[in-house]
Amino acid sequence: MKDLIIIEGLERNDKVVFDYVFNYYYSSLCAFSMQYIDNRNSVEDLVQDFFVYLWVEAPRLKIKSSLRSYLFTSIKNRCLDYQKHHKIIEKYRIYLLFSSDKEDDSTEQFFAESELRQAIQTSLAKLPPRCREIFELSRLNGLSNQEIAEKLDLSKRTVELQISNSLKILRKELAEFLPFLLLALLIG
Amino acid sequence: MERGFSEIEELLPGYLSNDLQEKDRAVIDEWRSESPENEIIFQESLKAWEAMPLLHEMEQFNSFEALKKISTRIINQKSTNWWILMQRVAAILLLPLLIYSGYISLRNISLKNQQEARVVMQTISSRQGMVTQFELADGTKVWLNSGSSLQFPCLFTGGLREVKLSGEAFFEVTKNENQPFLVKAKDLNIEVLGTSFNVVSYDDEKQAEVVLVEGKVSLSSEIDKVNRVFGTLNPGQRAVYQDANQQVLAEEVEVDKYIAWRDGNLIFRDDKMEDVVRRLSRWFNVEIVINDPEIKNYAYKATFRNENLTQVLNLLKISAPIDYQVIDNKLLPNGEYSKQKVYLMKKKKV
Fold first, then answer.
1. ipTM at complex level
2. Scanning every residue of chain A, which has its alpha carbon at the shortest distance from the alpha carbon of B50?
3. Which of A32, A111, B128, B218 has its CA 20 to 30 A from that of A74?
4. Domain boundary among B14, B37, B59
5. Which of A12, A43, A72, A139 would best serve as a mutation to test chain B binding (most B beta carbons within 10 A)?
């Protein structure tokens, strides 16, 4: 759906449009908020409160930016308020896939769950089967290289090579799919 | 240089998961600071490295459940706003009203009938793939299944509480013997005093059905002003109204499987694959095509709880002699996406 049509639908309190927006962005807004508030329940409450506000106030809101940018910026502000209120010292998590320090809202650095899933699925399909299995065991199931080696009866060295090879392929694939990412790096 | 770079690529996973030794970390740090291009490669690697855990984190949040919660809050919000507004209006009008009512009582005007004619109708729809729950003005609870809509008045006036359903809904009707509750589903009229029951009546299907959980409902139809009464339904019974012959057939059923959708569950108990497919395609908003007539009558038994389409299809594949093929949605020229399509066929003997 086009942005303008969605915003217009929200403004006239169309429940179908509202549900669509909710379903599309809910999980990614929650994951985004986890960067600021490391508590699942608080994060869900915060995002839900925002959507109730969005429903009630939508007829009076004039959303000028893209919808995506509006949603993520609003949620970010609510998170910062929450931190102030609860005196949370910001934890330095990896600010990943969501640029939060960039003030210019060229927006497209935010992803909805379905978009990310599609990008990952398409990219993973490019990996040789063995490569993919090892990479998934590592990044999805959180196994250590040693554990993977034992499980698949390979040497640890082979596992390491397969993982760096997977990363090399995925990097190129994902760069094409999720091109506009700006990352604030806080590693180490 | 090329050899140097492949060394870097080998070290990257360790760097990203923080288990490199100080010496190797320094190698990467130095490489990053060498040129902006290197830094971009590094950031792309980081993105690829964290993409899956991030997706996993997103998947922990259930928008389905959350929307159910929020929808009730939104409906309540609406009625509170309405109530506050009414209080204000009442306060402002009170004084002139007192004077006016004295005046009006002298004249014998019946405004009552006129007021009743002006009932505001409201429609709530449930998007594909979700269940919406809300309460009507009389306290009746309604669960609206995926892709369904219910039309009802903001306030129930007159001798009947009448609502109109397209799609599937579950009702828990508040008892009021003076004002029976009437659901219009296509040509079928379902009249109750206070019970809970499930109704399915999609516009593109040639039948409407009612499953009664408790209490009593009476069924009738009205076509071209001709009334037909079909009789009453008992708890645990399911009645199916066929558009073609305008007849109702009733049978004893296991009620649970017809109302499990309210909690996001899908239950099949020896159902024909044809029916299974019909419900799955509504549930996931996909088009499912049975490619082999032989599997149409295959009886299937399963319970799905919050599984996604791929998981359901895989279970189907494991538990029945069936294989599937998914055709992903395509971008249409108007910028929207076509429905995802799934083909079911017989598993080939290996």
1. 0.83
2. A96
3. B128
4. B59
5. A139
